Amino acid sequence: MTQPQSISVTKPMHEDLPEEKFNELEAFIDGMETTKGALIEILHKAQQIFGFLPRDVQLYVARKLGIPGAEVFGVVSFYSYFTTKPRGKHTISVCMGTACFVRGADKILERLKEKLGIESNEITEDGLFTIKDVRCVGACGLAPVVMVDEKVFGRVKEEDLDDIINSYKKG
Amino acid sequence: MAITRTNIMICVGTGCLATESEKVLKNLELILKARGYDKEVKIIKTGCFGFCEQGPIVKIEPENVFYVRVGPKDAKDIIDEHIIKGRRVERLLYKEPFQNEGIDKQENIPFYKKQLRVALRNCGLVNPEDIYEYIALGGYEALGKAITKMSRDEVIDTVKKSCLRGRGGGGFPTGVKWEIAKAQESQVKFIICNADEGDPGAFMDRSILEGDPHSVLEAMAIGGYAIGSDKGIIYIRAEYPLAISRLKTAISQARELGLLGKNIFDTDFNFDIDIKYGAGAFVCGEETALINSCEGKRGEPNYKPPYPAQEGYWGHPTCVNNVETFANIPSIITKGPEWFTSMGTENSKGTKVFALAGKINNVGLVEVPMGITLREIIYDIGGGIQGGKKFKAVQTGGPSGGVITENELDTPIDYDSLTGIGSMMGSGGMIVMDETDNMVNIAKFYLEFTMDESCGRCTPCRIGTKRLYEMLNKITSGKATMADLDAMKQLSYMVKDGSLCGLGQTAPNPIISTMKHFWNEYVALVTDYDNPQGEGKYEAKNKIGIES
User: How close does chain B come to A144, measured CA to CA in Å?
Assistant: First the structure.
């Protein structure tokens, strides 16, 4: 059984990374039966808490588990689900699976980037949106698919994009 | 349980949820209650019917009336007309293109006529969040039979005799895999369900987990009994939140009823299942990479041997099977191997689920017996090409497969015949392309994918896929020469021969097969860039040249 470090581990807190969030993560890690093989699970939780995985959070996890920071970064950078950059309030995911691609998802993505003036994984100036290109969300019957947070928009046309964006600007 | 005269089944799979089936459900419930029929009519949330193109789907049992594209406003008519007055709502019935008459029964719809459902037998039939519905349809009977009436060797023998082959793509005989895992002498063994469906354009595993999670749990327990393991792990993509939540519900229900846990069916067999989450990496479909990822590490593949069956999860013997493979197991145990071998071709028995997508009329999930021809799938089940355009090619096997052209549409499909015509079964993604698609662009799309997903462990794949992608870019931007085409072909074979795992070994397949069948499109982009083939013919020429 592998246990987390029992000594107190420095929490590199600042404005964007408040103490409560670190405490929540710490409680989660301390509550695990074993931390053997649990790194990915812990990073999922950390990303859920902080929204992203900046260097300080990665280092905290490494120290807490007593493993090298490089090992944590190795895992974070390997998987596309983990992000080291903060995200906007809403994440617009454009499905780039094959089914969506042959129905023009690449054009939707280009147009969306133009409209919001950002590239993939960047935040708009007002902090509202981040664009992500994702691999197959499995709704191939509705291709091309755009997801805003958890809501799926199917059979999206270029001219629908304005409506979709605007509906989130108000709310 | 109260007896009801009519059941309204409504699909709450990801596809239908995206087209507001939840609102339809809510409206149905409200109106039913308001009219006072909620005692005699029951609304059942089911998994995927497979006909995603026509979602949301509502089916009325026992009349077996099949309504398609049901909007939230249609709920009123379904209740007032159908349930109360017993009249069909004609406008919601499925209509064939160019026909006015609606078809009311599910089995009469051409999409379903040639299908044969084994792995998907319960999808669209049971409420995935209610274990009793699964049990009512014979669920967990196979597990009971296996552990109380059969020896471990008999279970393995049955699976071996059924000739079931791995549905994740490899096509390795499942019974043999179990036999190898059983032969290992170890106190601790693991059985892992591979639910990391990475092929973009395939969604059968997700649909099975969302629509019929218990069949997978039951099969894992049977497998655990057979190989001598008391611990199962489901490795699932974090991108499938609905499937994860249904699995969790299913596991806790099975534990409550003692179908998982200690002393199952009062025998000394113990078995429990844990869920591990992936984090988005295509290579994790490879079993050694998957095991590394389960251990919380980077999902890079290992050299084989040792095979996972010898030395897998934390060094213990581990058996990895795919979701669809597992979904076939319970029926094989209850109905016997002869029943299973009665379907399919000589070397590929049973059925296969395909995710039909792309430029086809009826997008959705179909399960057909092995040996059916591609033409039957595309034209009879799929309803032909969208917008009356001409068929050009179909890509099977996802980024690892190849294209199949018109000439080979009449090949009966099974594992071996698809390999024979330069493609592969893969996990069952089937993307249909029409005359407007430029094949070089398609190859580029797949290479971009494999380049992104290459884990970086071995050089041929890490650098090779990058160079191949660059060459394709050069071709689609009109800067390539004929010598580049030859170099690309050569490099493709080098990457194929030199890579460590399946990802690299198959990554150049889309290039090799499009070059074989559509060489003229490559040549045209080199010699006559101003008059490109395919997409370019129909749209502005710079469209295929978009630099990314």
Answer: 10
Residues of chain A with CATH 3.40.30.10: 90-170
CATH of the domain at B453: 1.20.1440.230
Mean predicted lDDT score pLDDT of chain B: 91
Taking Cα atoms as reference points, which of B1, B221, B220 lies closest to residue B127? B1
Dist. CA B291–CA B309, nearest whole Å: 11
pLDDT at position B160: 97
Convert the pLDDT of each residue in B138-161 to its tens digit.
Answer: 999 999 999 999 999 999 999 999
- Phi and psi at A156, nearest 5°, equal -75, 135
Query: Token pair of A109, please?
Result: 């993505």
Type of residue numbered A145: V
User: Chain A interface residues facing chain B, Cβ-Cβ under 8 Å?
Assistant: 36-41, 43-44, 74-75, 78-82, 96-99, 101-103, 106, 110, 134-143, 145, 150, 152-154
N- to C-terminal Cα separation, chain B: 59
B547 pLDDT exceeds 50? no
State the pLDDT at residue B350. Answer: 95
The reply to whether B478 and B495 lie within a common domain is: yes
% chain B with pLDDT above 70: 96
Is B118 part of any domain?
A: no
Residue B456, min C-alpha distance to chain A (Å): 10
Beta carbons of B357 and A137 less than 8 Å apart = no
In whole angstroms, what is the distance from residue B249 CA to residue B47 CA?
14
Q: How confident is the model at residue B546 (pLDDT cuts 50, 70, 90)?
A: very low
Question: Domain total for chain B?
Answer: 4
Residue A64: phi and psi, rounded to 5, are -60, -40
Contacts of B19 in chain A (CB under 8 A): 142, 154
**Is A152's pLDDT higher than 80?**
yes
Q: Which of B277, B299, B359 sits opposite A78 (nearest CB)?
A: B299
Scanning every residue of chain B, which has its alpha carbon at the shortest distance from the alpha carbon of A136? B200
Fold entry, domain A90-170: Glutaredoxin (3.40.30)
Q: Which residues of B touch A79 (CB under 8 A)?
A: 278-281, 299
Out of B385, B419, B434, a domain closes at B434
Choose among A44, A101, A136: nearest Cβ to B445.
A101
As a whole number, mean pLDDT of residues B396-420 equals: 92
Q: Which CATH superfamily is domain A1-86 in?
A: NADH-quinone oxidoreductase subunit E (1.10.10.1590)
Across residues B402-425, what is the average pLDDT?
A: 92
ipTM: 0.90
Is A99 close to B433, i.e. CB distance below 8 A?
A: no
* pLDDT above 60 for B548: no
Integer Cα distance of B33 and A30 in angstroms: 48
Q: Tell me how close the Cα of B391 comes to any Cα of chain A, in angstroms.
A: 13
Range of the domain at B358: 351-434
Judge whether B8 and B205 are in contact, CB under 8 Å.
no
- Best mutation target among A81, A82, A102 (most B Cβ atoms within 10 Å) is A102
